[in-house]
Amino acid sequence: AQSVTQLGSHVSVSEGALVLLRCNYSSSVPPYLFWYVQYPNQGLQLLLKYTSAATLVKGINGFEAEFKKSETSFHLTKPSAHMSDAAEYFCAVSNQAGTALIFGKGTTLSVSS
Amino acid sequence: NAGVTQTPKFQVLKTGQSMTLQCAQDMNHEYMSWYRQDPGMGLRLIHYSVGAGITDQGEVPNGYNVSRSTTEDFPLRLLSAAPSQTSVYFCASRIRTLSDTGELFFGEGSRLTVL
Question: Rounded to whole angstroms, how far apart are CA atoms B11 and B3?
Fold first, then answer.
């Protein structure tokens, strides 16, 4: 069965610092992987997705993620954090039947000035 | 350009009461789903539908019913609310594709408290 594990429930960075949010996946088939962001009191918004094309995926707001099959990872990065990046981030994988997204437990990103 | 609309945004129920969370989308999406979000648990799938007249269970279906009579609407029913159903509920939809790479569009959520 497909699953994702997000390492670290809370990550704190300074404004301008590198953002690294970790996600490892488990899948018996080539996975489709997603990163979503949730701002306070809002629904989730897609940041980026990996669908077996390029292994380095660029998303919105300067975020990108790299699919590494050998490490079963799909970590999310941003070179320079901005205060507006403070939110909760979810990694997700599509289930084998293609009928659901399976979400990780989320990582809350805090950005300090 | 409404997208996915959920009502109500907030609701307080007493144990044993029933209610329906409404979800409507105007994007002609075939796939619709309900998730619940609990602290430290991420989002868990309750029920989903791949088209009008077709529904199926997700990871945590107990205590919830759904139906899909139209493409636009996918209501979630709680027949006898329990405190364990206190949560934030999200409706999400997408187009159906063979490879399921479509983006899920989420509503803004419905916060339910069961006393």
Answer: 22
CA angle A16, A6, B105 (to 5 degrees): 85
What residue of A is the nearest CA neighbor of B104? Answer: A46
Contact B40 A44 (CB under 8 A): no
Please, which pLDDT band fits residue A99 given cuts at 50, 70 and 90? Answer: confident
Contact B75, B23 (CB under 8 A): yes
Which tokens sit at A38?
A: 């949730």
Looking at the complex, report in whole angstroms how far the Cα of residue A88 sits from the nearest Cα belonging to chain B. Answer: 10
pLDDT digits (tens, 9 = 90+) for A62-83: 999 999 999 999 999 999 999 9
Chain A CB contacts of B100 under 8 Å are: 32, 94, 98-99
Separation CA A89–CA B23 (nearest Å): 24
Assign A29 a pLDDT band (cuts: 50, 70, 90): confident
pLDDT-based confidence at residue B100 (cuts at 50, 70, 90): low
